Amino acid sequence: MNLREQPGPYFGEFGGRFVPESLVEALDELSAEYEKAKVDHQFLDELDRLGRSYIGRPSLLTEVPRFARLAGSVRVFLKREDLNHTGSHKINNVIGQALLTKRIGKSRVIAETGAGQHGVATATAAALFGLDCTIYMGEVDTERQALNVARMKLLGAQVVAVKTGSRTLKDAINDAMRDWVTNVSTTNYIFGTVAGPHPFPAMVRDFQKIIGEEARAQMLAVTGSLPDAVAACVGGGSNAIGIFDAFLDDEPVALFGFEAGGEGIDTPRHAATISKGRPGVLHGARSYLLQDEDGQTIESHSISAGLDYPGVGPEHAWLSDIKRVKYSAITDSAAMNAMKALSQTEGIIPAIESAHALAGVLDLGKTLPAGSNILVCLSGRGDKDMETAGNWFNFLEQK
Amino acid sequence: MTPKDKVESVSETLDKLRETGTGALIGYLPIGFPNLSQSIEAAITLAESGISAIEFGIPYSDPVMDGPIIQRAAQASLDAGLKLKQVFEAVSAVKQATEIPVLLMSYWNPILQFGVERFCEQLASVGGSGIITPDLIPDDAAAWIAASNNSGLDRIFLAAPSSTAQRLAMITKQSRGFVYAVSTMGTTGVRSELDQAARELVARLREVGAERICVGLGISTREQVREVLNYADGAIVGSALVAALEADGVSGLRERAMSLVDGIRLG
Which of A182, A384, B37, B190 is the most exposed place for a label (fewest CB within 10 A)? Predict the structure, then answer.
């Protein structure tokens, strides 16, 4: 069975559309337009052109030997999505969905954001294409990512600080969905990850799979073979599915997803959805989620705002169930140590999200045979995290 | 007439009211707001005020179809510690005090986690009439359709102004009791004017064969109730009742409910 190119709405028993009827017409329209666009050469050429001339694709593959020494006797290669315009992989998906918005003929886009990377990417694309833009961001996140709020405003977006529920990413998604239900005739929802109702999980994956397609060719060119292992961090899971997809049917390539273990998965403060959650419905899809016995969503915790989400994309839930990808959790402190390690061995400051994958590799490298090649998705850069890192490592003067 | 020992179904209630030339007024309240016993008392108050059926909402952590008033009440109920098993206690208590139908409104995940079949059996055993499912569409509802058939519960799906004729036909076919027509594109809340879209949606539902249609979202005054009952079988009021309960307790709720019931009587 080919694992690639699963069309949705279901991935095994995960996925679907658990949404108010008011959204079905918009989702159908989006699905139909996307099905046409993905075989339309004009659309694909435009996407490719913007990838090269605006995002900065193909992104580099960088070998990091000094960092690799900390991981045993392996070679480690970083897929440098941190070098993309706006500083993360999020822009790949946003440019695709913004082009679709133009095709459908809508004039306004909305998006949710946690760390602010997807919000910044959406505000950027809205500026580029001349679309009105509103970004929903949990109030807690607007405080811990204040600079990204300023970036979005500078780009012309309206930023709504969401004050309901846990005031983080899940509540930002709730409010974005309420906006969409109300304004669906003029507005397209640019969803940031491979979760949500169909067609988002399959469509966002398709816009992100260029990460793995480029990296697969780059690994073959540099090492002459496929990597032995591929690693990525998993919140909703868009960078992970983006780098995994190209390797799903390469059976010898082992795939590893690293979730946010927060203060430890034996404490209540983590965001390790696959490791500790169970199947349920949230934000339009059936997948693993953190919930109590009554099905109420449990608040997640991670030092990284971009992984601080109690759900995960349905394709990941399926890839875990069929054991194609192995998912495990990385604590806040392991991630912060890995962030520092990469910074000080290679001069590359990763986003705290991506540092979870790096921390995973430090353990993984010691379990693999000497000489194994590990490919890691460096999904974003760490500039946005300087306040968090400064406080964590006591680099900042105490106020 | 309905025998006293038999639970009157929502369809029977709607049909009876239609025969008398009026229509139904369905009142929504969240279970456990402001606490369990007062929410039971509030529902019984609605029945005493002349409301035709109760829509009891199960509070949920991520209510995407709800506006600020109901979100706030649901969160307060959860914060006060409401558990899912208390839902049956609430329905049972209200059914012991009144004969009008009691429906539940629930987002899908709580029912899914409880076990769809088990939930339906327990709801039926305490006299509940059925469930309104705001985030479950017939396309993904196989388990609910089977379980509601087994337990005889009414299955109320939503229809929206944006739904195609094909979907309206499918929703009508899969619904039992009535079809819930959302009056406007948006979430629950109080609106000063009702959308013309509601009237058009009801007409489109009639065209595809819907026998009983109730309109909800944004209805808050007796004038709006009267207007809706000119073309639909029932009007559903939520946020306006919850706001009255929040501001002035059960006595405020009674006053608001009686004022709304005038909308049926003068219809």
Answer: B37
